[in-house]
């Protein structure tokens, strides 16, 4: 468990990373480095999007599954890695 | 004797209604008290008797007094056939009560007539049907005639008749039996409302979608459950395991995020080092087209670990199954600075943090990853121990470790190599050390069992003289039992596993210790050796003198053949340069000489080619590992002749080498 903590810490302190959020299966954020309102917003919206993306991938081929999702916007990049029980969201500014 | 109107009541023979008195005719009967029936009969007889005084033969004999007795007969209007004692049940008194008045009407004749009273409803209806006007109607029509002016007379009458009939029709229609309305008001019981409240049943809202993949998931789970049940049926169920599992699910929150966190970390790294990743994949140095005989090395990722800063890279090994994973052994070559060591695994996907790392008490000098089982790593230490790590296990200690009891080396172990599984399907590996022994270790259950294969000695024959120190060895790729050992004295011995007492051949290779000796990947006869005496030599193992000699102006740390070409090899030197040679292009010079580390004082210690990708990793004595991409010139394949198919496969490489060698041999032969 300490390893996971360490990994998360490394991600947070990585170059260009703005924030990280850990979300559970129902879309409720468990851990975050951002403020509350932003966290809630990100968690809610991205949870839905991830579910939709996963549903799409699996509809096409049920044996397939979503590994991760990247949304690159003008300002930064949002990366979502879903899991059976948890979901990790990282916002990074790649150009820094 | 005649009928007289005398009122004499003899007996109350019938019950008479109060208030009703019928005419009572009393007939005086001659005789005494008699019944009614006989009275009447007697009366008749008596009348006849009064006239003629004929005495019938069956007449009663009565006395004179009895004959003068008067009998009263009552004649009433009561119906003799009407029942006299009708009893009805009274609900009020809840008993049967006799009805006081009984209907005495007797109908003797009934005839229905067809006459209607002219004022009755039925009569009126009939009149209306027939069109005969009523008295009232006539009056109305006369008045209407006076009013209406325009319609014609006939029409008026017809219209009036209709109007009259309509008036008649407007009256309420009732039934034909003299309808009478009757209403009654019942007692309305006062209304009471009564209600009770129950607890609502517990509710939970549930929603789900039924997609194709959800159905698939459910089927998968079912299958797994069935398989588990089968296994449980075979094995004995353990209750402790269940409890253990429950505890796990309760206690942890974050361990399940581990996998996801790893993926994210890699993604973040990919973003940060995006250009490197792109270069790794796609960049090809275009300037190579203009420089035919030269190539370049493009620096890619640099791997370093904080805790390994003062250690030098002492061993490098790519993983055969996972092409992006490589192992780095860290320790120290310096005799005076011996301390701890580390075994670190990096993946190309994450250059900032190692995938696995194992700290060790003694510096690592060599390592090898099992070709078939990519999770087994054999490690040789500076203190003479060998150990085997299992990457699948979580603990930081090795799975097996040799100890002083179990035949560990007395001097540093310079090389380890995995072998194929022996006949008992045990994994085994070889190690060579400065104590002159080549030892084979077998993994038997939980122990390492060692077997001395050969003991090296200074002079040719074994078990004579002081022991030599082995510094490197390599097994032949195809011929399993054949291997080469390089010693500290600069000699290379060709040995066989079968013969432990004698070398097959000895080559006087170098003036100083042989740092590395490697067989060619394709050609079965060629091997290469390098030494701190600044030279790299290529040999044909049938010839005792080297085929090629290269002087690199600095102590050569390591040399490696490329996996894609039999004529390409690379060497690293102590001055921080990487030399890449392609004998097919240039037999005398390197086609690439490039410094790859920033500070010139860093010595490069090891080099390895990636089996799949065109990159090399170079380790130096500051603990860094640099990855470099080979430019196209360095990876050239033999040019195809026009019209011919491009030949592929190891045979081509072998042929290429053979050609080179034959070129060299010819002048030798000619000389000889």
Automatic annotation (TrEMBL), chain A:
Assigned keywords, A-Z: Cytoplasm, Cytoskeleton, Dynein, Microtubule, Motor protein, Transport
Stored Pfam families: Robl_LC7 (PF03259)
InterPro entries cross-referenced by the UniProt entry: DYNLRB1/2, Roadblock/LAMTOR2_dom
Record-level GO cellular component terms: cytoplasm; cytoplasmic dynein complex; microtubule
Cellular localisation: Cytoplasm, Cytoskeleton
Domain annotation Roadblock/LAMTOR2: ranges: 4-92
Biological processes annotated in GO: microtubule-based movement
Gene Ontology MF, one: dynein intermediate chain binding
Role summary: Acts as one of several non-catalytic accessory components of the cytoplasmic dynein 1 complex that are thought to be involved in linking dynein to cargos and to adapter proteins that regulate dynein function. Cytoplasmic dynein 1 acts as a motor for the intracellular retrograde motility of vesicles and organelles along microtubules.
Protein family per UniProt: Belongs to the GAMAD family.
Protein name: Dynein light chain roadblock
Organism in which the protein naturally occurs: Esox lucius
Lineage: Eukaryota, Metazoa, Chordata, Craniata, Vertebrata
Automatic annotation (TrEMBL), chain B:
Biased composition (Basic residues): 1-10
Homology family: Belongs to the dynein intermediate chain family.
PANTHER family: DYNEIN AXONEMAL INTERMEDIATE CHAIN 1, DYNEIN INTERMEDIATE CHAIN
Name of this chain's protein: Dynein axonemal intermediate chain 1
Subunit structure: Consists of at least two heavy chains and a number of intermediate and light chains. Interacts with BICD2. Interacts with CFAP45 and CFAP52. Interacts with CFAP53.
Domain of life assignment: Eukaryota
Protein's cellular compartments: Cytoplasm, Cytoskeleton, Cilium axoneme
A GO cellular-component term linked to this record: outer dynein arm
GO BP field: cilium movement; determination of left/right symmetry; outer dynein arm assembly
WD-type repeats, residues: 507-540
Region span, Disordered: 1-53, 121-172, 189-208, 228-247
Gene3D superfamilies: YVTN repeat-like/Quinoprotein amine dehydrogenase (2.130.10.10)
Organismal lineage: Eukaryota, Metazoa, Chordata, Craniata, Vertebrata
Statement: the UniProt record of this protein carries the keyword Cytoplasm: yes
């Amino acid at each position: 468990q300490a390893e996971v903590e360490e990994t998360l810490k490394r991600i947070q302190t990585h170059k260009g990373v703005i924030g990280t959020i850990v979300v559970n299966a129902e879309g409720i954020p468990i851990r975050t480095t951002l403020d509350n309102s932003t966290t809630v917003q990100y968690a809610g919206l991205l949870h839905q999007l991830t579910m939709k993306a996963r549903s799409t991938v699996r509809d096409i081929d049920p044996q397939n599954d979503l590994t991760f999702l990247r949304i690159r916007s003008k300002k930064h990049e949002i990366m979502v890695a879903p899991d059976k029980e948890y979901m990790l969201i990282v916002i990074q500014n790649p150009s820094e | 004797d005649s009928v007289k109107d005398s009122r004499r009541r003899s007996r109350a023979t019938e019950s008479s209604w109060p208030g009703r008195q019928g005419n009572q005719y009393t007939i005086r009967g001659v005789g005494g008290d008699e019944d009614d029936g006989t009275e009447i009969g007697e009366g008749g007889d008596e009348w006849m008797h009064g006239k003629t005084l004929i005495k019938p033969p069956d007449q009663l004999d009565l006395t004179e007094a009895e004959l003068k007795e008067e009998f009263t007969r009552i004649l009433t209007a009561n119906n003799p056939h009407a029942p006299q004692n009708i009893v009805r049940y009274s609900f009020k008194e809840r008993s049967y009560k006799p009805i006081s008045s009984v209907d005495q009407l007797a109908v003797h004749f009934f005839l229905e007539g067809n006459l209607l009273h002219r004022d009755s409803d039925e009569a009126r209806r009939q009149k209306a049907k027939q069109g005969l006007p009523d008295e009232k109607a006539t009056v109305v029509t006369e008045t209407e005639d006076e009013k209406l002016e325009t319609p014609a007379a006939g029409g008026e009458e017809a219209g009036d008749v209709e109007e009259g009939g309509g008036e008649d029709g407007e009256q309420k229609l009732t039934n034909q039996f003299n309808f009478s309305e009757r209403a009654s008001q019942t007692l309305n019981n006062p209304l009471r409302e009564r209600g009770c409240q129950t607890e609502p049943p517990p509710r939970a809202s549930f929603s789900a979608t039924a997609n194709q993949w959800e159905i698939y998931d459910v089927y998968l789970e079912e299958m797994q459950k069935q398989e588990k049940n089968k296994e449980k049926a075979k094995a004995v169920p353990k209750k402790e395991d269940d409890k253990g599992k429950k505890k796990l699910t309760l206690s942890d929150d974050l361990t399940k995020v581990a996998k996801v966190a790893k993926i994210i970390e890699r993604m973040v790294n990919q973003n940060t080092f995006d250009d490197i990743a792109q270069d790794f994949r796609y960049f090809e140095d275009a300037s190579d087209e203009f420089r035919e005989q030269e190539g370049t090395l493009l620096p890619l990722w640099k791997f370093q670990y904080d805790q390994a800063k003062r250690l030098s890279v002492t061993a490098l090994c790519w993983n055969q199954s996972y092409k992006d994973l490589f192992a780095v052994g860290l320790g120290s070559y310096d005799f005076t600075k011996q301390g701890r060591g580390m075994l670190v695994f990096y993946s190309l996907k994450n250059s900032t943090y190692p995938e696995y790392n194992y700290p060790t008490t003694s510096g690592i000098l060599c390592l090898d990853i099992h070709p078939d089982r990519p999770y087994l790593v054999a490690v040789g230490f500076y203190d003479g121990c060998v150990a085997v790590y299992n990457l699948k296990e979580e603990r930081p200690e090795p799975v097996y470790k040799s100890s002083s009891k179990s035949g560990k080396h007395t001097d540093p172990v310079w090389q380890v190599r995995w072998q194929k599984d022996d006949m008992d399907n045990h994994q085994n590996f070889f190690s060579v050390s400065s104590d002159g022994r080549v030892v084979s270790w077998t993994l038997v259950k939980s122990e390492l069992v060692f077997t001395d294969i050969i003991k090296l000695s200074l002079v040719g024959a074994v078990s004579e003289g002081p022991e030599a120190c082995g510094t490197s060895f390599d097994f032949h790729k195809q011929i399993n039992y054949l291997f080469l050992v390089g010693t500290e004295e600069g000699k290379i011995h060709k040995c066989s596993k079968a013969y432990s007492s004698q070398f097959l051949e000895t080559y006087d290779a170098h003036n100083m210790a042989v740092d590395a000796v490697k067989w060619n990947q394709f050609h079965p006869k060629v091997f290469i050796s390098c030494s701190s005496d600044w030279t790299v030599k290529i040999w044909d193992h049938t010839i005792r003198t080297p085929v090629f000699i290269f002087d690199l102006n600095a102590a050569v740390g390591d040399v490696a053949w490329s996996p894609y070409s039999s004529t390409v090899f690379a060497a690293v030197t102590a001055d921080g340069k990487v030399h890449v040679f392609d004998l097919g292009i240039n037999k005398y010079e390197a086609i690439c000489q490039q410094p790859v580390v920033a500070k010139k004082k860093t010595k490069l210690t090891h080099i390895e080619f990636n089996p799949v990708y065109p990159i090399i990793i170079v380790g130096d004595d500051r603990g860094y590992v640099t990855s470099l991409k080979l430019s196209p010139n360095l990876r050239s394949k033999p040019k195809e002749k026009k019209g011919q198919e491009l030949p592929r496969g190891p045979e081509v490489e072998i042929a290429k080498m053979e050609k080179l060698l034959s070129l060299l041999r010819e002048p030798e032969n000619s000389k000889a």
